[in-house]
């Protein structure tokens, strides 16, 4: 008969359970047999002592021709009783639990009953010892031992009933039917005891089977748990690998996003510098130099008498003023370029240091961070955006200025994009710095409020999620990385808006830690 793998496994499991149940039953039976062997060996020894004392009490001495001596019953109790229990006790000491031992013990117990009946002069009361002995032998829960005991009892009654009825029945002669009557009562008790033994073994078998099933189920569960644990470990390893890759990708996109924000302002400053250079009056200086060179032999006459020469001093003064203004503007733009490049370096360095879990805290004035973030974004005059500064006089504090600057640049950049589509007279961004008290302690609060497109209620709960954005060209990394940076510094970043086209407010709260006097002195 062909079996499927599932059927084969079920059959193999059933065979294993049966084999284990048989093993458990055998162990349990062997334990009972050994315990009962010791119990009945002790009982035999007590009966031997009791029989000797009984014989000594009932017939202590015999008199023959006026000579006093120990009665034969005492010697019979001591010597015959010792002979009866010698072999059972020996086997119990050497082979406890063995089949031969319990049959010999059962036979010895029945012979000891016969001895006690003999010492009791065959009185009917002494025959009750036989039924008690059978009950003790039933402790083995082995019906075969009861058969052995019954054969010994019936044989003892039959032989002594025929040869020495006085020792077994207390009369000089007894009918054979009396032996059958006693045997019948013994067999009547055997019927119930054998039934109890069989039922006890079945109960033990059931217990063994249930235990085997529990062990099999436990082992099966343990095996499944081990498999699932290994699967979980493998899955965890894969997730850790994926998380590491995702973390590296997130860091890379965060770096690119923050660098991109700064590059926009760098590009604006570079464009302004290039435009100023193209429109510079430096070529006019070269033309004046050519005129002066062509008239260098009579330069004084040329400047004082010639119409064109008379204009040169005033032209040079105007040119100097113009070039001075150009220089100031280009110096400012170059400084913006330098700050932007420095911030790019710091962004890259801070992302590299994240892997080392090291934060570089330094003393800085919060208002200066806002001003730097605005300057890095480029001049607001070209877009008509009005910046309103509402800065409380907060002294220098200790914080990771590059992370804070990274967050503020993101917020200011988003605010500029939000208001650029509004009419020129409504393009307003309000920047606030203040110290606040809360249940979490003193906090330093940065706020960026704009009058731009606003945020819909359903987007407020998702605006800091990775990859979420409402801008057509956005990628959703800026606010997510900014929120993570805020949490790394022990702070929080939140957003609020009254709705679409009603502006928005972003709030950065950080722990407020003023610079200590000692640190200030060291600076």
In short:
By secondary structure, this protein is α+β, with helices and mostly antiparallel strands. 68% of the residues lie in helices and 10% in strands.
Describe this structure in words.
The protein is an alpha+beta fold and 523 residues long. The chain folds into three domains: 21-193, no CATH class; 280-354; 362-522, Heat Shock Protein 90, CATH 3.30.565. 68% of the residues lie in helices and 10% in strands. The strands form three sheets. It has a five-stranded mixed beta sheet with strand order 4-6-7-9-8. A two-stranded antiparallel sheet has the order 1-2. A two-stranded antiparallel ribbon has the order 3-5. β6 (428-438) and β7 (441-450) form a beta hairpin. α2 (72-95) packs antiparallel against α3. It is rod-shaped and about 185 Å long.
Number of helical regions: 15
| Biggest pleated-sheet summary | 5 strands, mixed
Helix content: 55-70%
What is the 3D form? rod-shaped
How many angstroms does the end-to-end distance come to? 93 Å
For the largest beta sheet, what order do the strands appear in spatially? Answer: 4-6-7-9-8
Overall residue-averaged pLDDT value: 79
* Count of all domains: 3
Structural classification: alpha+beta
The helix-strand sequence is: HEEHHHHHHHHHEHEEHEEHHEEH
Q: Would you count the extended β strands for me? A: 9
Strand content: 5-15%
Q: Provide the gyration radius in Å.
A: 56 Å
Poorly predicted segments: 61-69, 354-358, 517-523
